[in-house]
Amino acid sequence: DAKTTQPNSMESNEEEPVHLPCNHSTISGTDYIHWYRQLPSQGPEYVIHGLTSNVNNRMASLAIAEDRKSSTLILHRATLRDAAVYYCILRRPGNAGNMLTFGGGTRLMVKP
Amino acid sequence: DGGITQSPKYLFRKEGQNVTLSCEQNLNHDAMYWYRQDPGQGLRLIYYSQIVNDFQKGDIAEGYSVSREKKESFPLTVTSAQKNPTAFYLCASSMRQGATNSPLHFGNGTRLTVT
Fold it and tell me: CA A25, CA A4: separation in Å to the nearest integer?
């Protein structure tokens, strides 16, 4: 299965943009790139997903490299409520189902 | 509002006892999943179900059992055979098992402590 690599932690100042990187060099053509975030003692929350084109929604933007071997989650203006662990996951179909494998993620700290 | 409900939020058990964690969804989702999370770690898949009366083992199924008698419900039993049962357990669902672009919806978890 294709894996993702993310930095363990990042810091940001409140009201500034945040770029969270993810490497997935073994991604296959049918893998979707999903991002989730998890606040302390809560379940993960879906943020955004994409296949090839950049994507925007009310929470964030997803920039996908042309070769799809990396992607970046962009929070345009970080708030204290954005402090969480962010997971980059590849979702693929297959006989074993359509599950997500979550790695360690990036812990984002937002400073006021 | 639709969502996933896990109960209880905290659960304490003595070693050697089986315990069942509840997961109910009213999203009309076909697929449901159970994950385990240990402190500072990512999520590991225990079991998943694509349809009623069918389920498959995930990466760490040993010591766990599930049932899927109703579309809305996917209870997880942690048996006495599970060597390290203390963990944060998360239930999730998605619209269609075969859809790679269908996001997962998670409950808020059950924190199980076994002493």
Answer: 8
CB neighbour class for A36 (10 Å; exposed up to 12, middle 13-18, buried from 19): buried
- d(Cα B49, Cα B114) in Å, to the nearest integer? 26
Tens of pLDDT along A11-38?
A: 999 999 999 999 999 888 888 899 999 9
- For residue B82, how many other CB atoms are within 10 A of its CB? 21
Q: Which of B42, B99, B109 sits opposite A105 (nearest CB)?
A: B42
* Interior angle at CA B93, CA A91 and CA B72, nearest 5: 155
- Please, which residues have CB within 8 angstroms of residue B47's CB and are 6 or more apart in sequence? B33, B34, B55, B56, B57, B58, B61, B64, B66, B76
The token duo for A46 is: 């879906």
Residues facing B50 on adjacent strands? none
A101 interfaces chain B, CB cutoff of 8 Å: yes
Asked if B27 reaches chain A (Cβ–Cβ under 8 Å), the answer is: no
Q: Are the beta carbons of B101 and A51 separated by less than 8 Å?
A: yes
User: Pick from A57, A74, A59: which is nearest to A22 by CA?
Assistant: A74
Q: For B46-101, what is each residue's pLDDT tens digit?
A: 999 988 999 999 889 999 999 999 999 999 999 998 999 999 999 999 887 556 66
